[in-house]
Design a protein that fits this description.
Elements lengths: L2 E6 L4 E8 L4 E8 L5 H5 L7 E5 L3 E2 L18 E4 L1 E2 L12 H7 L3 E4 L3 H11 L2 E5 L8 H10 L6 H5 L5 E3 L5 E6 L4 H9 L3 E6 L4 H6 L4 E4 L10 H10 L5 E4 L1 H9 L4 E17 L5 E12 L1 H4 L4 E7 L5 E6 L4 E4 L14 H20 L1
Parallel strand pairs: 3-4, 4-6, 5-7, 6-8, 11-12, 11-13, 13-14, 14-19
Antiparallel strand pairs: 1-2, 1-9, 2-8, 3-9, 10-12, 15-16, 15-17, 17-18, 18-19
Bound molecules: glutamine.
Glutamine binds next to β16.
InterPro entries: Anth_synth/Amidotransfase, CarbamoylP_synth_ssu, CarbamoylP_synth_ssu_N, CarbP_synth_ssu_N_sf, Class_I_gatase-like, CPSase_GATase1, GATASE
Catalytic activity: L-glutamine + H2O = L-glutamate + NH4(+); hydrogencarbonate + L-glutamine + 2 ATP + H2O = carbamoyl phosphate + L-glutamate + 2 ADP + phosphate + 2 H(+)
Protein name: Carbamoyl phosphate synthase small chain
Length: 366
């Protein structure tokens, strides 16, 4: 294996082995504590522009299979692991992680101390990082100076959303699913419930969405800072009160911002497969799959028509809200799992129930 460096903007240098693409990249270095599900994490479009570190010490051991993708193309900038399993063993495996990342042109580094890296990120917050080209010896000080001055991808939602609507037919509720960088898991959960889905691009207007006569609108997850897409916030403002809405992750942040709340960047984000979240309406705690760098400010919710329904037990931040007047609710975590626990899959049933109840209400008024 050729040598590769991971350089951080604080001056830290890790020397490891290159795998995946020979090319270099820059990105925001983040970490996930998920112990399985690397294929799903790597293909989650919410990681656009990010270099993803796995704290689990061996990655790649069950290979890459045809079933577990969360997107068609990869959006992330790089992968950092302690030890790459070169010979996967699993009946579904079709290729190795290394082969897959080569084919998708994503660079990886292995053989570095990911515990040390994670401690640095936890201490300083997420950092900009650079993965050097495989085998290239660089002037490290110069590269770090360049990295400090560099700007990481902007308009990330635009890069991962679709450009034209497409249908995913069913015989049940008509759902317009707004794709901000949607994980396929959301589509799978709606399909399982036989929804008649139209997936639309992130910049679809409220008028166009309502013109599709939806029973409900689902707002997907997606990468980046939610305040970077003000038009989407406007669109959500216009559909609140018109139609039942369910938001996941970025979708949750957009519903909150559209209602007058504010967002902030977490120091190092929540990424993993076992984040405990308390549902304040039932008192029940569920283990959740999470992948977010931003969160909604709890205090800012007081002056809105929203109420907090879920909180993260690790740090007390907001993990879910619902509207006090309209059938609108959202969660910051991933009820679709993909990968991760399925404790919260019932929220998709709640969305169906909300659409049914709304239809009954409308027919009473007809
Ligand atoms: N998975 C997501 O939708 C993440 C939302 C947003 N990009 C964040 O980092 O907070």
């Amino acid at each position: 294996m050729k040598t590769r460096y991971l350089l951080l903007e604080d001056g830290t240098v890790f020397k490891g082995n290159a795998f995946g693409s020979e090319e270099g990249s820059i990105g925001e270095v983040i970490f996930t504590t998920a112990m399985t599900g690397y294929q799903e994490s790597i293909s989650d479009p919410s990681n656009c522009g990010q270099i993803l570190t796995f704290t689990y010490p061996m990655v790649g051991n069950y290979g890459i299979n045809p079933d577990d993708f969360e997107s068609i193309e990869l959006a992330l900038s790089g992968v950092v692991i302690r030890e790459l399993a070169e010979q996967p063993s699993n009946f579904r495996s079709q290729r190795t992680l290394d082969e897959f990342l080569k084919a998708k042109n994503v660079p990886g580094i292995e053989g570095i101390d990911t515990r040390k890296l994670t401690r640095i990120i936890r201490k300083h917050g997420s950092l900009k990082g650079k993965l050097t080209k495989a085998g290239e010896e660089v002037n490290i000080e110069q590269e770090i100076e360049k990295l400090k001055a560099s700007i990481i991808l902007k308009n990330v939602v635009e890069q991962v959303s679709i450009t034209r609507p497409y249908p995913s037919p069913g015989r049940g509720k008509r759902v317009v699913l707004v794709d901000f960088g949607m994980k396929h898991g959301i589509l799978r959960e709606l399909n399982k419930r036989d929804c008649d889905i139209i997936v639309v691009p992130y910049n679809t207007s409220a008028k166009e969405i309502l013109g599709m006569s939806p029973d409900g609108v689902m707002l997907s997850n997606g990468p980046g800072d939610p305040t970077d897409i003000p038009k989407a916030i406007e669109m959500v403002k216009e559909i609140i009160g018109q139609v039942p809405i369910f938001g996941v992750c970025l979708g949750h942040q957009l519903i909150s911002l559209a209602s007058g709340a504010t967002s902030f960047k977490l120091k190092f984000g929540h990424r993993g497969g076992n984040h405990p979240v308390k549902d304040l309406t039932t008192g029940r705690t569920e283990l959740t799959s999470q992948n977010h760098g931003y969160a909604i400010d709890a205090d800012s919710i007081a002056s809105t028509n929203l109420e907090i329904t879920h909180i993260a037990l690790n740090d007390g931040t907001v993990e879910g809200v619902k509207h006090t007047k309209y059938p609108v609710f959202s969660v910051q975590f991933h009820p679709e799992g993909s990968s991760g626990p399925e404790d919260s899959a019932h929220l998709f049933d709640q969305f169906i129930e909300l659409m049914n109840a709304n239809e009954q209400k409308e027919s009473l008024h007809a």
